[in-house]
Automatic annotation (TrEMBL):
<dbReference type="InterPro" id="IPR012255">
    <property type="entry name" value="ETF_b"/>
</dbReference>
<protein>
    <recommendedName>
        <fullName>Electron transfer flavoprotein subunit beta</fullName>
    </recommendedName>
</protein>
<dbReference type="InterPro" id="IPR014730">
    <property type="entry name" value="ETF_a/b_N"/>
</dbReference>
<dbReference type="InterPro" id="IPR033948">
    <property type="entry name" value="ETF_beta_N"/>
</dbReference>
<keyword id="KW-0249">Electron transport</keyword>
<dbReference type="Pfam" id="PF01012">
    <property type="entry name" value="ETF"/>
</dbReference>
<keyword id="KW-0813">Transport</keyword>
<feature type="domain" description="Electron transfer flavoprotein alpha/beta-subunit N-terminal">
    <location>
        <begin position="23"/>
        <end position="209"/>
    </location>
</feature>
<dbReference type="InterPro" id="IPR014729">
    <property type="entry name" value="Rossmann-like_a/b/a_fold"/>
</dbReference>
<comment type="similarity">
    <text>Belongs to the ETF beta-subunit/FixA family.</text>
</comment>
């Protein structure tokens, strides 16, 4: 089984987020980058599925050369090889088209993404890949099992879960529960240095959207501690005006 895992290079959640050029450009100075946590879950599941010679795992990332440390970490976790599309990931449509072009030429049995990236939280790439590749796409997967050429997927829906059976090939957007993220060991880290990393030039994709401005959340206000229920109700009614 050939598995493709799509990974994003995202700011660590502990990084301080600021913007430049009148809040139109994300300031990368001093920002540490990591594999998108949901993508790391997808990668861990792919490695599990491929263990024991049952398959191969390729990771793909759309980004410039600065993303290669993140890609090498994915190789250290257990991917066999990697592909970097040499372009800035300007939006989900652009990213999905780049990945779809490569995937079409390779014929993967299973394509995994995270449910969303933690920087823009768009949750679009898995669905767009399914459409571009004419494949079934299932997102917010909480459990994934493969038997032969069939996938059984537990999918999160409002108020419960949905259990689906889908024939391979399929695109799956994974969430918590599919697998536990793996920590690369020293052998994996050393081996990642020599694993293949192919750089592919991007295709032209029409620009359908652009970011006009970023805004930081409003600072948190002062906290009031109350001991009485009546006092809480009064504050919610008179000050917060939510009841």
């Amino acid at each position: 089984m050939r598995i493709l895992v799509c990974i994003s290079n995202v700011p660590d959640t502990t990084s301080k987020i600021t913007f430049t050029n009148d809040n139109t450009v994300f300031n990368t100075n001093g920002v540490q980058y990591i594999i998108n946590p949901y993508d790391e879950i997808a990668l861990s599941k792919a490695v599990e599925l491929a263990e024991g010679g049952k398959g191969t795992v390729t990771v793909i990332n759309v980004g410039d050369a600065s993303t290669e440390p993140t890609i090498r970490k994915a190789l250290a976790i257990g991917a066999d090889d990697a592909v970097r599309i040499n372009a800035q990931p300007r939006d989900a449509w652009f990213v999905a088209n780049q990945i779809a072009k490569y995937a079409k030429e390779q014929g993967f049995d299973l394509i995994l993404t995270g449910r969303e990236s933690i920087d823009f939280n768009g949750a679009q790439v898995a669905a767009l890949l399914g459409e571009l590749l004419n494949l079934p796409s299932v997102s917010i997967a909480k459990k994934l099992d493969i038997q032969g050429t069939e996938a059984t997927i537990d999918r999160e829906i409002e108020g419960g879960k949905e259990v689906l059976t889908v024939s391979l090939p399929v695109v799956v957007g994974t969430a918590e529960g599919v697998a536990e993220p793996k920590i690369p060991n020293m052998r994996g880290i050393m081996g990642a240095r020599s694993k293949p990393l192919q750089v592919v030039e991007p295709i032209e994709v029409a620009e359908l959207s652009s970011i006009s401005k970023f805004e930081s959340p409003a600072p948190r206000g002062a906290v009031k501690l109350v001991d009485e229920v009546d006092q809480l109700v009064q504050l919610l009614h008179n000050e917060a005006k939510v009841i």
